[in-house]
Amino acid sequence: MTFQPLIMHIDGLCRESNLSGALPATDELIRIDQAVGQGFKAKNLDKDVRTIQESLNQISPKQGGPKDKLKVDGICGPRTNKAIQDFQLKQFGLKGMDGLIEPGKQTIQRINQILFSNLPIDPSIPEQIRVQLLSHINLVSRSIHAAQTNLLLAMAPSSGLDLGGGRANDRLDRHFALGAQKGTARDQTIRQIQGVFTMFANALLMPGALGTGAFEMDPSGDPRIAFTFANGFFRNGEIDEARNIRRDRIFLGRRAFFALSDSELCAFIMLHEMAHFVGFPGGSFILDNGRGWFTDSTISKLSADQRLHNADSYATFAVECRTGNSAKPPYVKAATTSR
Ligand SMILES: [Zn+2]
Question: pTM for the full model?
Fold first, then answer.
């Protein structure tokens, strides 16, 4: 039984680690592969431009961030170029204002220093956080409901009336690789997945400090994205003495999670964390066997059993059930775990 929290790092993978003292070096936090901005060195890869747009949006105007948030579209147009220059001007003066952000160089390092510093936070932030969380939780709740409906449809006996059971089963096959399972074995697996989503729904009803289920703002100031305890759902009222935090909570990072402006991405992270938090019926853990959409090689190589114990499988399944769209959303990132 593990008592270390599972912490989602900047690369999106959750690992068991301690809250403080294990922070990655600041220049490892936000990464781009190729230069972004103006000039012949700028490659402006879609994902790199998005990283920069998202990062600059998290920086306050008094530190050189854009006054009006940039559209996160992966296109390095005039507004993004101006935002890069404004940030450099504010941070480094005229001589540092070349309009170019290169991997590992001073501008990206400064962005990381600002976003991931452990300076005390503004006391007005908890109220903003509550408001933000309430808007994300609506998407989370709708995703859970859509998943539950899909699971009921998948179990419904074929009666001549097409309720969408075929499509519902296709979704299960895509996200959980249940294609080889038939008959009662398949029904049993579907009931287990239902059990997971029943626990998701219950986790939303837990009386949390923010009034929104098991979710709470990270009390430690650890800047990583989110963390929870595996099967924390069943650790009702337990306190982690060493860290002075409850084990029956999902903690969202004050600087990383709440700096994200994309509600879809936030809801996705919350669904992912909920899977770790509730675990699989019978008590086994749901960990990270791979991150990504079912079309990513990080996921497609996983067996049904690995996917049933993989947090992203539940998050991606719930997202597709809600949207009805099987195409990979832009905020889902593939990553391989070293587990
Ligand atoms: Zn995880």
Answer: 0.71
